[in-house]
Amino acid sequence: MARVIFLEERCKGCQLCTAVCPKGIVVMTGSTNEMGYHPATVHEQDKCTGCGICALVCPDMVIEVEREEKAV
What we know:
Layout: E1 3-6, H1 16-20, E2 26-28, E3 40-42, H2 53-57, E4 63-66
Antiparallel strand pairs: 1-4, 2-3
């Protein structure tokens, strides 16, 4: 299972990650961060496939994707 971590205090709310998520689970929060932006977050973390597209498009590098290593 994959896990996506957003560094919400650094997010500027550009919404690029929400546009590219193939599962549609990256959303903007209703609250604001210290900079006054609505940061992105993931709801339904269990649906994340760990594709990493959200992290690739983030201009501020606020997204980390953790994937489980598969046993060989």
